[in-house]
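Re: weekly structure request thread

Next one in the queue (338 aa):
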Amino acid sequence: MLDASKYRRLGRTGLLVSPLALGSDNFANPTPVDECVQIMGRALDRGINLIDTSNSYAAGQSEEIIGRYLQETGRRDEVILATKAYYPTGKQGVNDRGTSRRHLMRACEDSLTRLRTDYIDLYQTHRVCMETPLEETLGALTDLQRQGKIRYAGSTTSPAWKITEASMLAEYRQLIRMVSEQTPYNLLDRRVENELLPAATAADLAVFTWSPLAMGMLTGRYDPQRPETFRTPRFERGGIYAERITARAAEAGQEFVKLAARFDLPPAQLALLWVKDQPGVTAPLCGPRTADQLDDLLPVIEMTLTEDMQAACDQLVPPGCAIADFLNSAPWMKGKVR
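Done, posted below.
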């Protein structure tokens, strides 16, 4: 079990969260149910206490798997359960997406049913909806909190100015205050260091980070000299996923593998450790596809990034820079990494 001193404050709340959180984007797509159960059990046994999911992961199946596991094992009270809403799930009408009051109220009820719980600890907007007034979104989240259906609210993949707007609007209108931001952050895309992380720190938000291994590029999975290594399910899915995996980024990933060897660490551990110990980060989300992958990452909970490691990583990709585009799913981000 993880020592109590290792836990970190969840933003401006009284909750404590483990320095690694469990992401579930792979649950049911492709990870089978029995392996999902193993992953959750091992994670909780080692002290991870936040499970992050979304109503859109595997069309709701991820929430269903988590809800069934927590109910059948009686471990619901051990978990800070976090989910999200924005994308359509099942319904495809023009109003079945975004962060309008109509969609959030319905999406929350559906998530509660799939998760088999009376409340969601952390309910997050999965993306910024520029067409919906922020006051409407915060008003809906406020009502959900007053109804006891959510405990806290957070945002995901937001620009820094939206974080500031939400903080000020909540104060002036006496609405729910966001307590967390979830953002893409890895050594290949450090752009959030420029504005997002300082804004989140100023607003006293917890910061959770997704894709800390850069879709496997930081583990050396993609080799520019071997085109066959690019034939992975994520790459062949095309769209935003394929856009992130470039020859330039893959070359940097190969260099990172050599860097990790200098410190006698598996590259996946160093990549996760680097994110975990960056200023302003509460916890990276590790989203293993298998239980064995989780076992490889769990030692990072007890590890500390050294100054030599930080300096070597800064040489590979300088602070604030990017050589891969992990903000390409953000509707507000127009500039692309070239």
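The beta strands are 8-9, 16-17, 21-23, 50-52, 80-85, 120-125, 150-156, 178-184, 206-210, 283-286. The chain has a mean pLDDT of 95.
Next request, please.
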